[in-house]
Amino acid sequence: MSRIAMKTPLVEMDGDEMTRIIWQLIKDKLITPFVDLKSEYYDLGLEERERTADAVTVEAAEATKRLGVAVKCATITPNAARVEEYNLSEMWKSPNGTIRAILDGTVFRAPIVVKGIEPYVAAWTKPITIARHAYGDVYRNCELTIDGPGKVELVYTAADGTETRALIHEFTGQGIVQGVHNLDASIEGFARSCFNFALDTKQDLWFGAKDTISKTYDHRFKDIFQEIFDAEYAERFAKTGIEYFYTLIDDIVARVMRSEGGFIWACKNYDGDVMSDMVSTAFGSLAMMTSVLVSPDGYYEYEAAHGTVQRHYYKHLAGEETSTNSVATIFAWSGALRKRGELDELPELVGFADRLEQATLATIEAGEMTGDLVAITSIPNPTKLSTEAFIDAIASRL
Ligand code: NAP
Ligand code: MG
Question: Which domain holds residue 153?
């Protein structure tokens, strides 16, 4: 059989632990038998990050800017325990954080909908994609404890020394205070990423904030989205037959619960943090979720939403059989290959990505799945497969 050719290489970012094992199985059994894979390989495994003083992470992100599409394996974000376990010279930063800081942009997460794994919200028959702004607000806050009576003000000192002041509160007793910020440039990037992704996936875009209460801060988000939409996107949305819709965050939440899904929900940073956990839980499992970082410059990085599944890895090291769900990692590969195929005008590669996803879903729908899904499926008498046997079952369908 002749294999499908590629033009531009993918940026391939390998990772850690159980997902590193899954990564190799996917390549060997699901990709390279069918595709003449072209990739620029970066090993983001913790040992290589230590050896290169984390330079490899920066190189991988720079390569993504050059080549446009990346696929990333889950990686360890070191904590004190990992510093000891891997004998690290430094507690290296989160690779995802480093990559996001270089590429900028918005993370889109959508559940992978499959028959037999029913969402807890019965009306949700189509996926709901959460687009989370990843800069500022409470994640870059500044906080103080107020110990007693006194005045708290916001003070802005302009470059020329002029001061603008606003009273926050005259305290008569103890209390707390918090300052947060955001940047027009970051909100503009967030808006463009959302509009581009809506056009890419032909889905409506919903956005909600609290502009009635936060008349300057949240209102700025609303205004920037509307200005960019009117100036740059309204026509293309109309042509594609999709809508941009803004309303209060409370109203959005109520509408989401009543909806059938099938749209993108743009969330401010905190709303996205909280609501993505709600949506992913309602749809079943973190291992049944796609995740892609879309930069305002049009770079794409596909990944799984879950971590390196450390507990399963230690079982694997102890020689025990594991049943780790590879669906999110498979969809990271199919997403990246499809995007590469679209950009390079390779319909065969796009078609392969579709078939890889169909074979994965057909395997689950036939009752062959990993343990995490066996526990929640409505399919009678499912078969629990090992990590490798599940990938073999997909390969035989492919
Ligand atoms: P995790 O790897 O997501 O796993 C937490 C638990 O969720 C697992 O023990 C397992 O539950 C279940 N699970 C997650 N993915 C699964 C899958 N594919 N198949 C079956 N079950 C799955 O989170 P963690 O254990 O907290 O973190 C491990 C490492 O991952 C950490 O070092 C962290 O820094 C890193 N991490 C990386 C990323 C990323 O690179 N994107 C994201 C998050 C965390 P059971 O044990 O009950 O089976
Ligand atoms: Mg959260």
Answer: 143-179
